[in-house]
Design goal:
single chain, 8-stranded mixed sheet, 4-stranded antiparallel sheet, 10 helices, 23% strand
Length: 317
């Protein structure tokens, strides 16, 4: 299977400001992340808030510059491209943002927001612009009559559909979805996920799906990466693979199961998440892990591949 996207050892280091009474400190929001995204697949990246998921998404699209690593899209090394070259490449790799309320300029009509990619790329659509806007609105389940509306006249779900239509305007092959349903009502979330699944089939799209909701990722994605404090701690080759990392197992055990007969007792994790500015010398999860040993507290575990199932743990389940 051909990889559309390949990421190798991608890292982003941030440094805090210094002052008369404060030393500068640094932390890794993303630390040595690698992933392969095959064409036509949906790979989910899941983890608690602050684990580096959204930073990873922005690094892959070079919306922010990485500190180290490699990103290849269709074989091209994105980190060696100039700003002009990246602008052209971004026509084929688009992002749907988490907050639909701030993703669209409030001064733009729906039509103006949707044609913005054509303006930026200096392109003309195949037909009339008005027809292109109508086609894109129909594609995401909105009526063309909304083209002259402003964002404040739309619901959250309608705004997110406009954001998806804008992302699809130039017919990209890759969509990076940064928690596209997180700020929506549950019923609207289901509609957006159903729409994205249909668009993936109809347009042969490839998805990198960022979420904190493991049950949603298991439903929507083909493969799963689990992140904790900037690192990938487990890579599941499919959604039916049993978790081997204690952190992933805890996430899975805490997901809501509609069938009462299948529900599990939720055992909350003890301890606190370490500060990313002051990580312990060994595994960052050790103080919260019931499996932790002396080795865990002394040595950072490497991501070891077990026949396609990679786990970064000294004592995998």
């Amino acid at each position: 299977m051909t990889n559309l996207l390949e990421v190798r050892d991608l890292s982003k280091r941030f440094t805090s400001g210094s002052g008369p009474f404060r030393k500068a400190r640094s932390m890794y929001a993303v630390n040595g992340v690698s992933l392969d995204l095959p064409k036509g697949r949906a790979v989910g990246v899941v983890g608690e808030s602050g684990c580096g998921k959204s930073t990873l998404a922005r690094l892959i699209l070079r919306l922010i510059e990485p500190s180290a690593g490699e990103v290849r899209f269709e074989g091209a090394d994105l980190l060696k491209k100039s700003a002009a070259q990246m602008r052209a490449l971004r026509a084929d790799m688009q992002m749907v943002f988490q907050d639909p309320y701030s993703a669209i300029d409030p001064r733009y009509t729906v039509a103006r927001a949707i044609i913005e990619p054509f303006v930026i790329q200096n392109r003309e659509p195949a037909g009339r612009m008005q027809d292109e806007v109508a086609d894109l609105l129909n594609m995401v389940g909105l009526t063309p009559g909304l083209a002259d509306s402003f964002p404040h006249q739309l619901s959250g779900g309608q705004k997110q559909r406009v954001g998806i239509a804008r992302a699809l305007a130039l017919r990209p092959s890759l969509l990076v979805l940064d928690e596209p349903t997180a700020s929506l009502d549950v019923s609207v979330q289901a509609q957006i996920i159903s729409l994205l699944a249909q668009l993936r089939d109809d347009l042969d799209l490839t998805y990198l799906f960022i979420s904190h909701d493991l049950s949603l990722v298991k439903y929507f994605c083909d493969e799963i990466l689990v992140m904790y404090l900037g690192r990938v701690v487990e890579a599941l080759p499919d959604t039916s693979t049993p978790a081997r990392h204690p952190y992933t197992r805890t996430l899975m055990d805490s997901t809501f199961e509609p069938d009462p007969k299948l529900r599990r007792a939720i055992v909350p994790l003890k301890g606190e998440v370490p500060s990313p500015f002051d990580l312990p010398p060994g595994c960052a999860f050790a103080d919260r892990c019931p499996q932790a040993s002396a080795l865990c507290r002394a040595q950072v575990p490497e991501l070891v591949n077990y026949s396609g199932h990679a786990v970064a743990c000294h004592n995998p389940i």
